């Protein structure tokens, strides 16, 4: 019961054909293949970068350090004397 029989696979393929159409499935498979190829090349490039220190390319430098955000204005709550003065005015 755990394995899928050939009839199950045929039904799955038929559902995919009905949902996506015969023209869109090859395009989707091609896009998936390209994505996997790019992913593999990026992973191998990352592992190569970890093995030896990479030298920065000419014209590229490091990004400047982020500037600190300005301090938020302080909010003071009125004292009891200020509240009573405000009411009498």
Features:
3 helices, about 90 residues, mainly alpha
Structure notes:
This protein has a domain at 22-52. The termini are far apart. The chain has three helices and no strands. Helix content is 58%, strand content 0%. It is mainly α. It is elongated, with a radius of gyration of 32 Å. The chain has helices at residues 6-20, 24-51, 80-88.
List the helices and strands and how they pair.
Elements lengths: L5 H15 L3 H28 L28 H9 L1
Helices, by number, come to 3
Strand content: under 5%
Structural class: mainly alpha
Mean pLDDT: 77
- How would you sum up the major sheet? none
SSE pattern, N- to C-terminal = HHH
Task: Note the gap between the termini.
Answer: 86 Å
Tell me the quaternary state: single chain
Q: Globular, elongated, flat, extended or rod-shaped: what is the shape?
A: elongated
Number of strands: 0
Function: Part of the twin-arginine translocation (Tat) system that transports large folded proteins containing a characteristic twin-arginine motif in their signal peptide across membranes. TatA could form the protein-conducting channel of the Tat system.
Membrane topology: Single-pass membrane protein
Subcellular location: Cell membrane
Region (Disordered): 44-89
């Amino acid at each position: 019961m755990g394995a899928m029989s050939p009839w199950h696979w045929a039904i799955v393929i038929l559902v995919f054909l009905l949902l996506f159409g015969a023209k869109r499935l090859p395009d989707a498979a091609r896009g998936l293949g390209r994505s996997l190829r790019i992913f593999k090349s990026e992973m191998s490039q990352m592992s190569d970068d970890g093995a030896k220190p990479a030298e920065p390319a000419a014209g590229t430098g490091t990004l400047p350090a982020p500037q600190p955000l300005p301090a938020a204005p302080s909010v003071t709550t009125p004292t009891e004397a200020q509240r009573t003065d405000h009411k009498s005015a």
